[in-house]
Amino acid sequence: MSEVVFVRRLSPGTKSVLAVFARYGTIIGLLAMIAAFSLLSPRAFPTVYNFTNVLNQASLAMIIAGGLTLAVIVGELDLSIGFAASMHGVLVTGLIVSSGLPIPVAILLVIALGGLIGLINGVIVTKIKVNSVIGTLGVGTILTGLSFAYSAGVPITAGVPEAFLQVSLGRWLFGIPNNIVIMAAVLGGLWVLVERTPLGQEIQAVGGNHAAARLAGIDVDRIKILGFVGSGMCAALTGILLASRLGSGTTSAADPYLLTAFAAVFLGSATLRDGEFHVFGTFIGALIIAFGFNGLSIFGAPTYSQYIFQGAILIIAVGLSSLGRILSQR
């Protein structure tokens, strides 16, 4: 309440400027960053090759962040996604190399398992009433243990077929990297689901107000569980594509995607809408992080600067999201 009162004390002109910044600040920041990097490195940064490389490198983070967006829209947090993606990468590689399963079968089984883990997360949160932070963190820790048990902590590298590597590294459609095509299909599908379907309206209603959604006859628990299922399936797909890109199944390979996904989602909530989480915003947030990392790399910044940048981006993202919500209550 005090925050809202503070905003009301500002002059109309100041509130208008803040409102524009809260709604368009991320897009303005993205364009300004691209322009600055282009001026500072005109030969290396503003090229089709570099922009394609940025999208390709960011595609997996965008997929896992897109799934997380579903969980966050319905008012929950999924902290298991990074650990789950790592386990799925180990599992899909093991199923192909050790169990001899055909690549499509192994991929489908692992994606289905990702949905099952999301279902378990959803049941723990909605039926057992465990806080989503605690519940999903606990599930993620269990998955890390299972991953180590399955692989004995040793990366699965020997015998990975070339056909599996090409799932991530190939260019099957008009010379576009497969990861970019898959990312576009996933995020496009999620956007249509949330923005253009009756189920999406229910998802947004639950995220907007749980009590009102229940009074409107919406099964809130079912919608929340579906959000976790979507998050789990996207984490599984990310783990599969990462294992294909690396040519190995490694127990902690995807763990860093957790922070990246949350930064992208919260940056997205400050894009075009007043503190609301949405798929297109997540895409913009992931682009900001990707171009930031790319620029730092081109200018030879030390590795630790990427962690500083990502942590700062997360803080700024939450701040912009909070500002948007406050201004929306004017």
What secondary-structure arrangement, pairings included, does this model have?
Layout: H1 2-9, H2 12-40, H3 48-73, H4 81-97, H5 103-126, H6 132-151, H7 162-169, H8 178-196, H9 198-208, H10 210-215, H11 220-246, H12 257-268, H13 279-298, H14 304-328
Helix pairs in contact: 2-13, 2-14, 3-8, 3-11, 3-12, 3-13, 4-5, 4-6, 4-11, 5-6, 5-11, 7-11, 8-9, 9-11, 12-13, 12-14, 13-14
How would you summarize what this structure contains?
By secondary structure, this protein is mostly helical.
Notable characteristics:
single chain, mainly alpha, ABC transporter involved in vitamin B12 uptake, BtuC, 0% strand
The SSE order reads HHHHHHHHHHHHHH
CATH class: Mainly Alpha
**Global morphology:** globular
Spans of 5+ residues with little confidence (pLDDT < 50)? none
CA-CA gap between termini: 11 Å
CATH topology: ABC transporter involved in vitamin B12 uptake, BtuC
Secondary structure class reads mainly alpha
Number of DSSP-assigned strands: 0
The percentage of residues in β strands lies in under 5%
**Radius of gyration from the alpha-carbon trace, in angstroms:** 20 Å
Overall mean pLDDT: 89
What does the main sheet amount to?
A: none
The domain tally reads 1
CATH architecture classification name: Orthogonal Bundle
What share of the residues lie within helices? Answer: over 70%
Count of DSSP-assigned helices = 14
